[in-house]
Amino acid sequence: MTMPAYRSHTCAALNTAHVGQTIRLSGWVHRVRDHGGVLFIDLRDHYGITQVLADSDSPAFSAIEKVRAEWVIQIDGRVKARDAALVNPKLPTGEIEVYALGLTVLGEAAELPMPVFGEAEYPEETRLTYRFLDLRRDGMHRNMMLRSNVVRSLRNRMWDQGFTEFQTPIITASSPEGARDFLVPSRLHPGKFYALPQAPQQFKQLIMVAGFDRYFQIAPCFRDEDPRADRSPTDFYQLDVEMSFVEQEDVFAAVQPVIQGLFEEFAPEKTVHRDWPRIAYRDALLWYGSDKPDLRNPIRMQVVSEHFRDSGFAVFAKLLEQEGTEVRAIPAPKGGSRKFCDRMNAFAQQQGLPGMGYIFWREAEDGSGMEAAGPLAKNIGPERTEAIRQQLGLGLGDAAFFLGGKPEAFEATAGRARNVIGEELGLTEKDTFRFAWIVDFPMYEKTDDGRIDFSHNPFSMPQGGLDALNGDPLQVYAYQYDLACNGYELISGGIRNHKPEIMYKAFELAGYPNSEVDKRFGGMVKAFKYGAPPHGGCAAGIDRIVMLLADTTNIREVIMFPMNQRAEDLLMGAPSEPTNEQLRELRLRVLPREA
Hints:
Layout: E1 22-34, E2 39-44, E3 49-54, H1 61-66, E4 72-81, E5 96-107, H2 124-129, H3 131-134, H4 138-160, E6 164-165, E7 182-185, E8 193-196, H5 201-209, E9 214-222, E10 235-244, H6 248-266, E11 271-272, E12 278-280, H7 281-288, E13 302-303, H8 305-308, H9 314-319, E14 326-332, H10 338-350, E15 357-363, E16 370-373, H11 375-392, E17 399-405, H12 407-424, E18 432-433, E19 435-439, E20 441-442, E21 444-446, E22 452-454, H13 465-468, E23 477-478, E24 480-485, E25 488-495, H14 500-509, H15 514-528, E26 535-541, H16 542-549, H17 580-586
Parallel strand pairs: 3-5, 6-9, 11-18, 12-19
Antiparallel strand pairs: 1-2, 1-4, 2-3, 4-5, 7-8, 9-10, 10-26, 13-14, 14-17, 15-16, 15-17, 19-24, 20-23, 21-22, 24-25, 25-26
Helix pairs in contact: 4-6, 4-16, 5-15, 14-15
């Protein structure tokens, strides 16, 4: 039999059935070990690792002495069974080793700027500059394979649910989707620009108008955003979905089995809860201080303003005299120690607040039973303190923390405090995924300069249709929804506004005249005038889903070639300066940076 040019088997394929056979392997030198005249190489390829050995009798011994980590080599050798005491149960090839008969160097490696063997922490700048080396590391390799398998599974699940995959353009018109566009200058139309799509939003709606019923796409999206740990600053992938003749519940019913099944498939060792509650946006902010709550933490905040109104605690009593203010409590079961309360008060100060009031319940020193302790308890008296304890359902050894003012000023801090309390007191579940649909988003919000603008997706249908738009815009809710999981937003979507008259009115309230709507969304408005079905859908963030399944909090750990925090590609050198010739061809001039 003629031996293949580079390998007869992969580095994961050999087992005791191959003992005695002469084989050929190719791969990277994972590490070299010298055991007193016997050399061992862990040879690695995409599939796994095989142990190669050579003693002084091996014709390959002198060649193996010269190889270094990450050289690419080819080994000809004979498969041997390992002694029982030397079997490595962690490797699929752990029962055998290959006795080297010959070695060919296919590619030498220079001195490594970072090791591949082991999972030592290295500066992210080095890892991204040498991403091809970083990706050779076992953890990163596993993450990329997980991502690939997740995408394949999503595709299969969507086809099984009766959806059809279509591709939409990557070069399109600029559209206000809530983030900055990446603009692309046109050579054929000097002075005009295309945009990379922030999402296939308009196209997927047009696909519904065109009569295709259930669409999906693994879609690249481009947004010029400020980076965060759970968000890529330039581009990301989403499972994009749209359906015709549906209400909100129909979308939920189609999506849940896909996401539920995906998490059960790729996190079999964790609990994936099947109960997906619907939580109104306003309730999510009140109870959890976030529109993407982590429901593994059972703590629910409550309004306790009445107990502090006209009370002896002047700070809250005066606050509550102002319009739009309230006091909220964060229950802390088993947090009833002064040490813990002081620690949480310090946490609030680190967040920029003056502090966080607290009450905790302990055994009375005179043995008379339970008493409330802390400065707040003294100020408001036992009757009000007891009413608070009963409202919150707390008892001996428990505590409660309090924040007051206008909710928008302290809500986010309260949410972070809730998360810290849940973690520190061991209340937050481990090895669990909990999902919730956040519904009833407000259609509009007031901007800092007092204008009315869309608070979310401008294409959502207002609840109540045209009639709802004749009252106070800030009281209008949209058929808009997000899926939260463990403190992250995984999905965002809505039932679309498919009627031109409602769309014109909705944009008018946000300060866009009809002419502006026609200019920006001319294709879609035109399409809606020729018979548009009721339709809706959503988009799921693939990078974020994989991040959760890979059990990491850094999205760059699950993207093959990510940008850094400053939106730079350190490997390829992007962004780069254009040549003068390119600028002339595009009729562009670069202004000098302002001092």
